[in-house]
Here is the input.
Amino acid sequence: MLSAFLKAPGRMAALSALGFVLAAVTGGLWWQAQHQVVEVARTITGGDPSRAPDILRRYGCAGCHTIPGISGGDGKVGPSLAGLRHRVYIGGVSTNSPDNLVNWIVRPQSLSPNTAMPASGITEAEARDVAAYLYAH
Here is the structure.
């Protein structure tokens, strides 16, 4: 029955066109949702996620952490930073908020004196860019 339907003139072309439209709509909705996530991340952190990849590489963050979207970001010393926006705690000790994340990135020992995460020398402005990136990914 299905093969007879598909063999009718123009049906395959119509199904292909429908598939293309559905893919375009779905892709457009995904892009819109991702764009909104990035804008929220910018707003709540005051940072620019587009600057973060260079910052993350410069400070060697990928040497310890797995970081989505960062080439070579497959470190196994610290936790993966994938899905950070969905976590309850930063560093296992502080509530996940933009200010706490920035503070953790700049001064991790201020929140957990015995943490293995080093004070890297990153500035607060750079940390805001990194926080925006992590919340956006």
Observations:
- The chain has one domain: 2-136.
- The CA atoms of residues 64 and 75 lie 4 Å apart.
- The beta strands are 89-90, 94-95.
